[in-house]
Structures are given as C-alpha cells and as structure tokens.
Write a structure and sequence with these properties.
By secondary structure, the chain is mostly helical. The protein contains 13 helices and no strands. Helix 8 runs antiparallel to helix 11. The radius of gyration is 27 Å and the shape is globular. Its main location: membrane. One of its GO terms (cellular component) is plasma membrane.
C-alpha cells in the first residue's frame, strides 16, 4: 500500500507531465497555424496604423464608421496603386522596347558590336556559350521546371495580401465594439486608463509608420540626386523603386541598392561604382543614425533601444521581427510605465 508521500509525488509527476504535454501541444498548434498568426499580426499592425485616420474622418466628416473605414482603405489602396503604376508602367515600356530590340541586340552580340558585344568579348562569354551550348540549354530546361511553384507562390501571395487587407479592415471597423467590450469587462475604474494605453499604443504604431516613410523618402530623394548627377536614365523611377523597397526592413534597402546599381552599371561602369559606394555609405548612416534618431522620436524611444530592439527581433524572427520590433518596443515601454514596474522592482518598503 502506497504512502501519502508516494501519492503526492505521483500526483506532482502527473501534473508536470501534463503541463509538459500541454505546452508541447500548444506549441504544435501554434506552429501549425503560424501562417494565419503572421497574417493576423500584420493585419493588426496595419489596422493600428490606419485607425487614427478612420477615427479622425469619422469625427470630422463622416458619421458612419463603416463608410469612414471604407474611404480610408480605398484611399490607401489608390495611393499604393498609384505608386505601383509609377513604377510598373515605365518598367513595362522598357521591357517592350527590349523585346522589340532583341533581334538587333542578338546580332550585335554575335558580331561583337555595341556595349553588349564589347562586354561579351571582354569576359569571353561568346566562347563559353559556343563551347557549353548543351550545358546552357540544360540550364534553361531546369529553369522552366520551377515555373509552377513560382505561379503557386504568386497566388499564395495574392491570397495572403487580400486576407491581411480584409482582416485589417474588420479590425478597424470593429475596434469601437471591441474596445467597449474590453472596458465593460475591466469595470469603470480602469476605463480611462485603458483608453489612454490604447491611444498611446496606437500612436506608437502610427509614429513608426510615419518615421519609416520619412526614412524612405530621404533614401529615395538622395538616390534621385545621385542618379540624376550621374546621368542615369529614368532616375526618378529608379529612386521611387528604391524608396518603396526601403520600407521593407532588413532586405529592402539591399534590394533597392541592387536595382539602382544595376541600372547605373548599364549606363556606365563609373556610374555603377559611384552608386555602389553611395549605397554602402548611406546604409551605414541609415542603420546607425537615421533610423535610431527618427524612429526614437517618432515612437518616443531612445536611439539605443531602437537599434537593440531591431537587432534582437531580426535575429529571433527575421523579416517579421524587424517589421514589428520598434512599435513592439514602444508598446512594451508604455505597458511597463503604466504598470509602474521599475518602482515595484526597486522600491524597498520601510
């Protein structure tokens, strides 16, 4: 017959095993729905950024929440579509011109004429193409195989974008009801405090979006000046591409730099080298000066906190972590201040 101590030990072991299994089950469920969680997180980010505009429009011009939300989202969509048109239309025109000139360019390459012919001769590419024709053809066949996966990825991206937009729209639309329900559960005493916390958290996200736009405009403006001074064609379009790409954390600035440097190299090797040097120097200034200072003022964080939060979040969660690092740090600072945690940790009674 087991003693009471044995039964308590067995009960504790069963509780520990149950907690471990429940934790593993919860982590497994989170991993299984990670894509949906990412969509929800992105939707909440965009909803927090657009909610102040919806609130302002509803209080000043439109009384109906649904109409105000629809107008703000339509305005955001039109703005994004206009920026996309400014980028895509010139690129499509250039692609069409390139396709029309393809036979002439091919003749120039075979004859060693023109800039492409000179490059082919300089790097020995024609001799390589002649001696490795079958191998290049095999590479071409391999490149056709991932076409289906690329098409599937494009469809998934479109679905994800639509889903995030719909979720953000519904979050903004239903935010007053959700806030009212939360305030009703919290009681009358905490209502004003929760409203203030929610307002400050929304301002942190809005400040981050505004600061990010300012940094991207600075990057695009400087890129336009450099490309225009070097005489690179379509400097304005390329600068707009760089500014839009710079909105994406981590990889955006690099992608924009590659696009601009590639266009500059096509114009001349000197322009390409100058553009590369410019972007290497600018990215150092942006990462270690512009982003900490501008984001620190926009989100009301000190520059060191901004830089450390971005580095840690990017290391832990990659692109998504870098995207939400600064507003998350701002929200965490607000919650810690409201909880008065530093005083509670370091205050010694008596």
């Amino acid at each position: 017959m087991s003693s009471p101590d044995d039964r308590r030990t067995a009960r504790r072991a069963a509780i520990v095993i149950g907690l471990v299994l429940a934790t593993l089950l919860g982590l497994g469920l989170l991993w299984a729905v990670r894509r949906v969680l990412v969509w929800i997180l992105l939707a909440a980010f965009f909803a927090a950024a657009l909610k102040p505009a919806v609130d302002h429009l509803q209080h000043r011009l439109v009384r109906r929440r649904a109409l105000a939300t629809l107008l703000v989202f339509l305005a955001a969509f039109v703005l994004l579509a206009a920026v996309g048109a400014l980028i895509v239309v010139p690129l499509v025109d250039e692609v069409v011109r390139l396709v029309e000139r393809a036979p002439e360019l091919a003749r120039d390459v075979r004859a060693g004429r023109g800039r492409l012919g000179e490059l082919v001769d300089r790097f020995g590419l024609r001799r390589y193409a002649e001696t490795h024709g079958e191998q290049l053809q095999d590479y071409g066949e391999r490149l056709r195989r991932p076409a289906l996966s690329l098409a599937r990825g494009a469809v998934e991206t479109v679905v994800a974008t639509i889903t995030v937009a719909v979720l953000a729209y519904l979050m903004v639309l239903e935010s007053p009801r959700m806030s009212a329900a939360l305030l009703a559960l919290s009681g009358d005493g905490a209502g004003d405090r929760l409203r203030r916390i929610g307002r400050e958290c929304g301002q942190a996200v809005t400040g981050y979006v505004t600061g990010n736009l300012v940094i991207s405009l600075i990057c695009g403006g400087l890129t336009f000046v450099v490309l225009l001074a070097l005489g690179v064609p379509f400097a304005a379009v390329i600068a707009l591409v760089v500014a839009v790409a710079d909105l994406v954390p981590l990889v955006g600035a690099t992608v924009g730099a590659l696009v601009a440097a590639g266009a500059a190299f096509l114009h001349s090797p000197t322009a390409g080298i100058v553009t590369l040097v410019f972007f290497v120097l600018y990215q150092q200034v942006e990462n270690h000066l512009l982003q900490p200072v501008i984001m620190g003022r926009a989100v009301r964080l000190n520059p060191l906190t901004v830089l450390v939060s971005v580095l840690l979040a990017a290391e832990l969660a990659g692109l998504l972590g870098a995207l939400v690092a600064i507003p998350a740090a701002g929200i965490l600072q607000i919650l810690l201040r409201e909880a008065d945690l530093p005083r509670r940790l370091f205050h010694r009674p008596g």
